[in-house]
Design a protein that fits this description.
Blueprint lengths: L1 H5 L3 H4 L3 H20 L3 E10 L8 E13 L3 E3 L5 H6 L3 H23 L6 E5 L2 H5 L3 H12 L6 E6 H6 L1 H12 L3 E7 L16 E4 L1 H4 L6 H16 L3 E4 L5 H9 L4 E2 L8 E2 H10 L6
Parallel strand pairs: 2-4, 4-5, 5-6, 6-7, 7-8, 8-9
Antiparallel strand pairs: 1-2, 1-9, 1-10, 2-3
Helix pairs in contact: 5-7
Bound molecules: ligand C2E and magnesium ion (MG) (3 copies).
The site of one magnesium ion has 4 residues, from loops.
Length: 287
């Protein structure tokens, strides 16, 4: 916060190591409580498929995003607790909770909406989850217990995570053998490049919001989007533009043949009941 408010004076305001450690310990204790008392919940943002040539765009899927309903602080966003969860070993439980909830909600929508339900559920993974030895067995169990079709589940890993580590790459291949889809999240922000995209067993590339938000104002960012879409398409991968907020950003990514978009322009992430309402009011657009 101090960094945002005070620019380069942030050193002056940065909390001491001890204060930070105490704060972390506090969040950790509260997060343990939150898991027990079911204060965590999942919201869903529609992922919209763009059709060229006058076809009607429709919600092809959703992305699951975790939230924490804190008894005092209100709704806490993931940026304020995912890292702590990773460091204190709670990410496994947290991740399993999100995955299971997402699968159950997905199947509930299917039961209610049939053909008109979104066909893909995307769930974010963190490095610590992939690194846990028994974690894939947990995924297999959740798929079995919920009855989720593996091909309808897409797990998202960040670019920097996927690119560097041999072990992680092996885990990704293991996941693929379950029949799950994989997406490379936040593409463009990490260290991998277009030239190494073919090395990763991913089905989808999600172009980071930092590129998309300048798509309509910066020729440089347009070129990067265009190149990413071209390379991904040539490898048979689907592309998603994240964080679309305006019609003109949408126009740009559509012109560059991006397959799908998500962003506030269509909808913010919504709790499951509101997502159902959203899908109902966008009925005409859903094939
Ligand atoms: P992400 O996977 O890149 O998710 C997209 C983020 O962008 C979400 O933030 C979403 O609310 C936000 N967003 C979507 N459209 C727009 C837009 O048009 N404008 C702007 N300004 N933002 C938009 P959120 O929900 O705060 O999540 C932040 C990050 O936290 C996620 O980034 C993801 O990496 C992580 N995360 C969220 N849920 C989970 C989870 O269940 N497990 C793990 N491991 N990480 C999670
Ligand atoms: Mg994501
Ligand atoms: Mg992510
Ligand atoms: Mg992202």
């Amino acid at each position: 916060e101090a960094k945002r408010a005070g620019g380069n004076r942030h050193m002056v305001f940065a909390p001491s190591m001890r204060e930070r450690a105490a704060r972390r310990a506090g969040i950790e204790a509260e997060l343990r409580q939150a898991l027990v008392e079911e204060q965590l919940f999942v919201v869903y943002q529609p992922v919209v498929r763009l059709l060229q040539c006058g076809g009607v765009d429709y919600a092809a899927g959703v992305e699951a995003l975790v939230r924490w309903r804190h008894p005092v602080r209100g709704i806490v966003p993931p940026i304020d607790f995912i890292e702590v969860a990773e460091e204190c070993g709670l990410i496994g439980m947290l991740g399993d909770f999100v995955l299971e909830r997402a699968c159950r909600d997905f199947l509930d929508w299917r039961a209610r909406l049939g053909e008109r339900a979104p066909g893909l559920m995307a769930v974010n993974l963190s490095r610590a989850q992939l690194a846990q030895p028994g974690w894939i067995d947990g995924v297999r169990r959740i798929l079995r217990d919920t009855g989720m079709p593996p091909g309808c589940l897409q797990l998202e890993v960040t670019e920097s995570l996927a690119a560097q580590d041999q072990d992680i790459q092996q885990r990704l291949h293991d996941l693929k053998t379950l029949g799950i889809q994989l997406a490379l999240d936040d593409f463009g922000t990490g260290y991998s490049s277009l030239s190494s995209l073919h090395l990763l067993p991913v089905d989808t590339v999600k172009i980071d919001r930092s590129f998309v938000c300048q798509a309509d104002t910066s020729a440089h960012h347009r070129v990067l989007i265009e190149a990413t879409v071209k390379v991904a398409r040539s490898l048979g991968m689907t592309t998603v533009a994240e964080g679309i907020e305006t019609q003109s950003q949408l126009d740009v990514v559509r012109n560059h043949l991006c397959d799908k978009v998500q962003g506030y322009f269509y909808s913010r992430p919504l709790p499951a009941p509101e997502l159902l309402d959203w899908l109902a009011t966008h009925d005409a657009e859903v094939h």
